[in-house]
Amino acid sequence: MKCKNCKVDFFSRTERCPLCGTEGELSHFDLQKDCYFYPEYAVPKSSKLDIAKKILLFLTIAFSSIAIFVNIFSLDIQGSLWSLLLASCLFYTLISFKTIFSKKMHTGSKILIQLLLLSALAIIIDIFTGFRRWSTSFVVPSLSIVSSLVIVFIAAGRRSLYKEFSGYLLTSFLVSIIPALLCLIKLSTHVWVGYAAFLVSLLMLLGLYVFSEKDFKNEMKKRFHF
């Protein structure tokens, strides 16, 4: 129903407008043409990237499960858990694919996630190949240095990103402490590499602070409370 007096559309079994109480001046309206309570909207469709992610997830789980199944029933023959190494590589590929092509994730987050994933994968491979400590001595410190340099170069290329990348640079600096800790607990055969990674990250942070503008310096003061 539609009231001619107050122009209100309503549903009622009576001939009286619930708003103004008018009788006898009501007109029926076409529900299909005059009622717009539920506007039409396009149903979102899955993109090719989403479909690729689902396919990659399924293949990762499937191949990992098959590898673990075969490894368990042939353990007395081969005597090694090679399936865990294969599963680690597959899941690294899956997570890397999802993070790299993610539109919602910040570039700094992608760099730090790759740093952590590659470090973990290198340590796992090192453990399954006799743990000669090449991962903790060279790979982890090198990845720490590279991640710090990449973040600094991106921030330096666009000064407007100083404040935006400050948190990620601080996180990278904190991660660079890990190689130094590995040296302290004697998990690194070349101590100088671990301390060099810490020193490079510290110098990158200080250099960015010295050559940056006031916005970045104010951000650092807020984070460190000085």
Question: What do these coordinates show?
Answer:
It is flat and about 95 Å long. It starts with a strand and ends with a helix. Helix 5 runs antiparallel to helix 6 (134-157), helix 6 (134-157) runs antiparallel to helix 7 (162-175) and helix 7 runs antiparallel to helix 9 (191-211). It contains ten helices and two strands; from the N terminus they run ββαααααααααα. Mean pLDDT is 78; it is low at 29-38. The chain has three domains: 1-43; 50-104; 123-226, no CATH class. The protein has helices at 31-34, 48-73, 75-78, 82-100, 107-128, 134-157, 162-175, 177-184, 191-211, 214-224, and strands at 2-3, 26-27. It has a two-stranded antiparallel sheet.
